[in-house]
Amino acid sequence: MNKILQTTRFVVENSDFVKINHDKVTEFSKDFNPDKTNHWLNAAPFRFSEFSDEQKLHFLFVFDALSFSYWGEPKWTVEHKSKKHDGAWGMILALGRGIEEGVPLTNFEYCANIGKNGFAHILRGNIEIPLFEKRYKIIKEIGTVMKEKFNGKASNLIEEASGNGQTLLNLIVKNFPSFRDVTKYKAKNIYFYKRAQLLVADIYQIFAEKGFGALKNMDQITACADYKLPQILRKLGILEYMNDLACKVDNKIEIADNSPEEIEIRANTIWAVELIKKEVQKRHPQIMSFQINDDLWLATQGKNNGDKPYHRTRTTAY
Question: Is the pTM of this model over 0.85?
Answer without folding.
Answer: yes
